[in-house]
Amino acid sequence: LLSKKHFCKHFLKVIMNGSKVLIEQSLGLQGEVTLAGAKNAVLVIMASLILTSGKSRLTSVPSSDDVFQMVALLQELGADIHFDTVNGILDIDTRNVTSCTVSAEIMRKIRASILVMGPLLARFGRAAVALPGGDMIGMRPIDFHMRALHLMGADFEIIGDFISARVRKASLEAQRIVLSYPSVGATENIIMAAALTKGATHIVNAAIEPEVVDLIIVLRKMGAQVTIIAPATIVVEGVTSLHPIEHEIMPDRLEAGTLLLAAAITGGSLHIRQGPGFLLDVFLEALVDMGHTIEVGANGIGITFSAAKNPRAVSFRTMPYPGFPTDLQAPMMAVQCLADGESIIQETVYENRLLHVRELQKMGAQINVEGAKAVVKGVEELYGAPVIATDIRASAALIIAGLAARGKTSMTGVHHVLRGYQELPEKLVKLGGKITIDQT
Ligand code: UD1
């Protein structure tokens, strides 16, 4: 059962789906923030608990809507769950997980729901899921996931939007899998499937995003044997059973990046005590190139930021980790809109992740798009305007732009902020941001 407090909070959020975020110019954001647990780590780690039978505890769990959807999904499979949203403690008991079918209603709400496919096939030999949903930032197919699991011995039947998967023999078989692109989700699904599969599964050209590594830490705690071989091969030696765990979710590096960009565009300063500087090197380097001052603490943890008076524009291209994260492309573009000079931004991970450009243009930004490339010419001022958030990171970009824009910005599509961030507007308000939620 979800706690009563959580239920009320979630209910409020559902009501807020039809509402707007109102942002007024708020120069010089200042202060200290704490980070929530990483959304992209917690979702897959929750799915990985299907591999075990028993009660696990996750801490530092963010109260974001995607987490609530994953809770609902696991409950549908039979898991008993208690979520203490105040303290971020999530207890998941997988003893009664017997169902292998996820309803279309839940699958369509979060793309990460596809991550139950690998664990279900490994533990039960079958899985029935609908095609996943999520942000509208590209085609986002699942062919890598299916090809790998097919090679390991799963057969798929697709009827309309539904995929039914079944293991051909008694269990999956270890294979050498070469990914043509280091897909985060496909890597995670294969690792989880391989953890209970006899023999050594090799994943070549695997994604080694920090959130994948957090999953690997969890699987090792469960008793799995997983190693990473440079430059990007993951080897999983299957074991016969895995046991429940306790784990603190890593801090959200993408939330850290978003908050730093809010401080950057408003000419402010910020201290993030648990800021994982060592996981944000390329991004932080771009901020330094703009002229901002950044200090990273000992062991790469702790970020202190102070904005430059006249920041220069920088160009960048998104890449798999350790490159510039695609999830910070939109917020970084908002910041380039007011920088001195021209910024060339190339989105290489997704084919359709520039939907925020049109909204930034409504605020006075000078941006030209050619395919997956955006050329941003810095302007003196942005102006508040009615804008629409189309995905999680676009919503962050528009809020950031709104903080620096003259006048009022009203943003619809509030549910996108709630999906991916735990209380982003509230955190910005604490730093001096003038942000309110209009529910009329
Ligand atoms: C994860 C993150 C998301 C982030 C992305 C890239 C979660 C919950 N989400 O998403 O925030 O933006 O990594 O860092 O962790 N692709 C295929 N076929 C496939 C799978 C992917 O063509 O079978 C393509 C996608 O369309 C996309 C690219 O590969 O263009 C990267 O996708 P992927 O790394 O799989 O992203 P996700 O795991 O969905």
Can you put this structure into words, describing what you see?
- The chain has 440 residues and is an alpha+beta fold.
- It has 15 helices and 23 strands.
- The chain has helices spanning 4-16, 39-48, 65-77, 104-107, 117-124, 143-151, 184-195, 210-222, 253-265, 281-289, 329-336, 356-362, 392-404, 414-420, 424-430; strands at 20-24, 30-33, 55-59, 80-84, 89-93, 126-130, 154-159, 162-167, 176-178, 200-204, 225-229, 233-237, 246-248, 269-276, 293-296, 301-306, 316-317, 342-346, 366-370, 373-377, 386-388, 408-412, 434-438.
- The strands form six sheets. A four-stranded mixed β-sheet has the order 21-22-1-23, with helices on one face. A four-stranded mixed β-sheet has the order 2-14-16-15, covered by helices on one side.
- A hairpin with a 4-residue loop joins strand 15 and strand 16.
- The longest helix is centred in the first third of the chain and has 13 residues, at 4-16.
- The radius of gyration is 22 Å and the shape is globular.
- Mean pLDDT is 93; it is low at 1-5.
- The structure holds uridine-diphosphate-N-acetylglucosamine.
- The site of uridine-diphosphate-N-acetylglucosamine (UD1) has 23 residues, from helix 2, helix 6 and helix 7.
Strand count, sense and closure of the main sheet? 4 strands, mixed
Number of beta strands: 23
Helix proportion of residues, in percent? 25-40%
Q: Averaged pLDDT, please?
A: 93
User: What is the rounded Rg?
Assistant: 22 Å
Count the DSSP helices. Answer: 15
| Low-confidence regions | 1-5
User: What topology, given as strand order, has the largest sheet?
Assistant: 21-22-1-23
How far is the first residue's CA from the last residue's CA? Answer: 31 Å
Structural class: alpha+beta
Unique ligands: uridine-diphosphate-N-acetylglucosamine
Give the CA-based shape: globular
What percentage of amino acids are in beta strands?
A: 25-35%
